Amino acid sequence: MDTALIVALITALAAIITPIITAFISSKHSEKLKKLDLIYNAKLDAYTSFAKALTLSKAFNTEEYNEINKLINNVFVVANQKVRSALIIFIPIVDNHVLSKEDADIQLNFLMNVNGSEALMRVLDAMSEDLNSYTK
């Protein structure tokens, strides 16, 4: 076979195969970015809801406590290990500051409690680090 014909066939084959390989790699990369975007948005929503509920609340009645527990469960689903570890320390502090409906007029601010504020800051810092790890 002629050398020029072999080179022409290889070039033609490369021209056919290269776009297929490029499209496959691009598709896989887009899929990975979409997954990261979905995970990031799920974490952002869960973390934001949690932070808003706790920083705006002064006292927890039973209804608010149940809502906070739902938010904590949502955070656990999407959180990394550092956030989960911080939450495990934080949860008993929240549990100790639940008011009965009769005592709801008492303005117990658990965030003024040193343990409560430090534990919440650890949780929020861990959440921030988790979210920042996606922007690097």
Give a short account of the largest sheet: 2 strands, parallel
Unreliable stretches, pLDDT < 50, 5 or more residues?
A: 104-108
Helix content: over 70%
Number of helices: 4
Taken as a percent bin, the fraction of beta residues is under 5%
Which structural category fits the helices and strands? mainly alpha
Q: End-to-end span in angstroms?
A: 53 Å
Question: What's the arrangement of strands in the largest beta sheet?
Answer: 1-2
**Rg value:** 26 Å
Molecular shape: rod-shaped
Question: Oligomeric form of this entry?
Answer: single chain
Give the overall pLDDT as a whole number: 82
Order of helices and strands: HEHHEH
Q: How many extended strands? A: 2
Descriptive overview:
By secondary structure, the chain is mostly helical. It is 77% helix and 3% strand. It contains four helices and two strands; from the N terminus they run αβααβα. Strands 1-2 form a two-stranded parallel sheet. α3 packs antiparallel against α4. The protein is rod-shaped and about 85 Å long. The protein starts with a helix and ends with a helix.
